[in-house]
Design goal:
2 domains, 10 helices, 8-stranded parallel β-sheet, 18% strand, Alpha-Beta Plaits, TIM Barrel, alpha/beta
Length: 340
């Protein structure tokens, strides 16, 4: 539930309400509204049944949250969240781009791509050091050596690093190198991993599962947030449908749905969403037009020789062309007042 305070409520009124909540064995989180403060109650609200919250000084009303995901719900947190990743803000109206190879293959390859995406305007270098693949015989990543290469690329370019964590056992090691931890589609409902990532405090990029509903996706975010980590960014990357032309079906409508249901930022990955580099550009534009807070795109200097996901990877030229268009599109939307 949320407790909405009157605009005239004093700090003592707020402290008294928080005290009543905590005395009942629940937790409380204060959020700043546009004109008034809101207290979010975390836990079983039935424990407050005997507490006259609505009669307390400064309280305008209490409202039950109908969603199973409380912390991720817009009912709990009406204002859009902005996630700060070491100075890069996601969700503040400026589309943030994460780009790079599907997998880290070599230091030379990574540095070359990092320079390309930096020049084009990306703020994050994406690259997999640990690669969960459908086939056990496919390239599984360079693991710690890949993390070391990512660190070198960060030092050379200043780009932030987002890379995937696949197992709890690797969490400490990956956290030493990554600015943002990615939970991949296959691990979206790996609840043990979600809980541990929630405890570590690092910003998290949570990709939508292969066949997950928006409700299931937001509940996965709740697992992370319930452990104390509210720095979660969602990533729509396509879902499994009966369509065979594309690798997945990119659900652009999920952006609007998430914006309505949750305060968390959401970005879109048109590379995995389509599996075809020719479709990345129109889908990237569609994502920004729908209100997405950013994009994740795969870029490779030689897609034909990429160790993974070559068919969906952009060449440097195609990447730059898309970035030029994104800048124009987002500028137009901002000037016309079309952004949320």
């Amino acid at each position: 539930m949320v407790i909405i305070m009157n605009p005239e409520a004093s700090e003592k009124n707020i402290e008294d309400v928080i005290s009543a909540v905590k005395t009942s064995g629940l937790d409380a989180k204060v959020m700043e509204g546009s004109q008034q403060k809101i207290i979010g109650v975390i836990g079983d609200k039935t424990r407050l049944a005997a507490v006259p919250i609505d009669a307390m000084d400064g309280v305008e009303k209490s409202v039950a949250i109908s969603k199973s995901y409380k912390l991720a719900s817009r009912e709990f947190h009406p204002q859009n969240s902005v996630i700060d990743v070491d100075g890069v803000k996601i969700g503040d109206g400026h589309p943030v781009v994460m780009a790079g190879p599907c997998a880290v293959e070599s230091l030379e390859q990574l540095l070359e791509i990092a320079e390309v995406i930096k020049k084009g305007g990306a703020e994050f270098l994406r690259g997999g050091a640990y690669k969960p693949r459908t086939s056990p015989y496919s390239f599984q990543g360079l693991e710690e050596k890949g993390l070391e290469f990512l660190q070198i690329a960060k030092e050379r370019t200043g780009l932030k690093i987002v890379t995937e964590i696949t197992v709890v056992e690797a969490l400490d090691k990956v956290s030493q190198y990554a600015d943002m931890l990615q939970i991949g589609a296959r691990n979206m409902q790996n609840f043990g991993l979600l809980k541990e990532v929630g405890k570590c405090g690092k910003p998290v990029l949570l990709k939508r599962g292969l066949a997950a509903t928006v409700d299931e996706w937001l509940n996965a975010a709740e697992y992370i947030m319930s452990e104390g980590n509210s720095n979660v960014v969602l990533c729509e990357r396509g879902i499994r449908t009966y369509e065979t032309y594309t690798r997945n079906t990119l659900d652009i409508s999920a952006v609007a749905a998430v914006k309505h249901l949750s305060h968390l930022p959401i970005i879109v990955d048109p590379s995995h969403g389509t599996g075809k580099w020719r479709m990345v550009k129109p889908m990237a534009f569609a994502a920004i037009a729908s209100g997405a807070d950013g994009l994740m795109m795969e870029v490779h200097t030689n897609p034909a020789k990429a160790l993974s996901d070559g068919p969906q990877s952009l060449t440097p030229e195609h990447y730059q062309n898309i970035m030029d268009g994104i800048n124009k599109l987002s500028g137009f939307m901002k000037n016309e007042g079309l952004l949320r």
